[in-house]
Amino acid sequence: APGAVAIRSLRRVLISWEACPARNQSNKRTKAMYLADLTTTDVDKLDRRLPVIIPFAAIEQHGPHLPTGTDTFITEGLLRRLDARNPDNILWLPVQRFGSSSHHMPFIGSLTLTSRTFLDTARELVECFFAHGFTRFILLNGHGGNQALLNVAVQEARLGAGNVTADEARSDMKIIHATYWVLAAERFGEIRESAPGGMGHAGEMETSVMLALRPELVRTDSLEPDGEEQRCRFDHKDMLEPGQVGQFRLWNEWSSKGAIGDPTVASAEKGELFIEAAVDSISELIEEFKAGRIG
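Now predict its structure.
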């Protein structure tokens, strides 16, 4: 019967697929170095000089076309790509989803921590692994509002809580903060197609990366440019030209629907290029950090 022939053919295909070397090899892939997947015994076997990446992002509005979890999805996506390249090179923690997003609170759906809560969280996560004997830390950032606070967190962790000079017991600690688009700024500038101002919040880069990582979450029917133009040469232009003065503006003061930039030129193909550039830069930083040339 035709049905029996089809079933026998399907069985042959499945048997061939089971025997495929590439499939068997993928099942034997080295276990990822993601803390939440490891047992306490796994972690105890690790070299205490292994860099520990503590990632930070946000849950906040990203205009009408991207989900509130955009920064978290991108940060985790970069780390999974990084881990896939060399799973023995780092230990990485789950992304800290709640960041410093007070400036986004005028738009519903945004969540934020106060500056002090954020700083305490960052420092205490470091303290946990420092207490376990690990001494090298990279605070990897995927949200602009976290940048200034993570620089402070590095200082507080290095000095120790409440100290104005470094505790001698912390002399072995090496800790840095890195924001992925700052590390990859030169490559990002080569990839972008939008004019200056087009790659801000939920603009060309973030929309492209989300089209590559989580296309089902991108509302492509709602893509439109948003955000005011740079007001003077000292002002913020976009993520690659963040401005020359410190200022704090609520997001509804310079965006009508929540985005800053031009998502209409985004594409999944460009998203893959942005991802590759970011992962290359993070990988390079890790090697320099391990060699003692930074931090």
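The chain is about 40% helix and 5% strand.
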